[in-house]
Amino acid sequence: MKHLVLIGFMASGKSTLASSLSHSLSLPIFSSDTWISKQCGISIAEIFSLYGEREFREWEKRAFERIFEFEESYIIDCGGGFVLQNDVRRLGRVYYLQVGLDEIERRLSVGEESVKRPLSKEIKTLYIQREKLYQAQASKVVDNQKEGAIQEIIEDWRRS
């Protein structure tokens, strides 16, 4: 099954864009973080706090395997670190939502975002490390700071 896969750093707009794409393309959404949180019965921040990042990454592996059970195409909203151990290219067409570090920091400093992201204290280091992984796994890089990113993805998806 071929899925529309969204990857990118935390606060890059994956969940927001997934919702808009779902409406425009009439595809259901699978959010790895939402699935993990429901399976565990607690928030992602609580999983990190109680069990650590290692346990969370194990749950990401389970979420990845779960996607292969789908019988129809989905929009896959991957958590920011989903690409650390999963080859998301196996899932379908991968869109890397690229957002500059300054904008990520700005988004994470606003309201609840500043406290609910478990790895937000290590932003610059994580951003630099993950940028290469996002680039390597992307079928297409989309600048999610410019107008028209959603339309760019829709047009590319329909052509693919």
TrEMBL record:
Q: Which cofactor does it need?
A: Mg(2+)
Q: Which UniProt keywords apply?
A: Amino-acid biosynthesis, Aromatic amino acid biosynthesis, ATP-binding, Cytoplasm, Kinase, Magnesium, Metal-binding, Nucleotide-binding, Transferase
Residues the entry annotates as binding substrate: 33, 57, 80, 130
EC top class, in one word? transferase
- What does the cofactor field's note say? Binds 1 Mg(2+) ion per subunit.
One GO term of the biological process aspect: aromatic amino acid family biosynthetic process
Subunit details? Monomer.
Concerning InterPro entries, the annotation shows: P-loop_NTPase, Shikimate/glucono_kinase, Shikimate_kinase/TSH1
What is this protein identified as?
Answer: Shikimate kinase
| Superkingdom of this protein's organism | Bacteria
Gene Ontology cellular component? cytosol
Q: Which reaction does it catalyse?
A: shikimate + ATP = 3-phosphoshikimate + ADP + H(+)
The subcellular location is:
Cytoplasm
The record's family statement is: Belongs to the shikimate kinase family.
GO MF term set: ATP binding; magnesium ion binding; shikimate kinase activity
Q: Just give the chief location class.
A: cytoplasm
Q: Which organism is it from?
A: Helicobacter brantae
Main role? Catalyzes the specific phosphorylation of the 3-hydroxyl group of shikimic acid using ATP as a cosubstrate.
Hey, which pathway is this one from?
A: Metabolic intermediate biosynthesis; chorismate biosynthesis; chorismate from D-erythrose 4-phosphate and phosphoenolpyruvate: step 5/7
Q: What is its EC number?
A: 2.7.1.71
The question of whether Mitochondrion is a record keyword is answered with no
Q: Which PANTHER family match?
A: SHIKIMATE KINASE, SHIKIMATE KINASE 1, CHLOROPLASTIC
**Residues annotated as binding ATP:** 11-16, 117
Q: Does the keyword Transferase apply?
A: yes
Positions with a binding annotation for Mg(2+) = 15
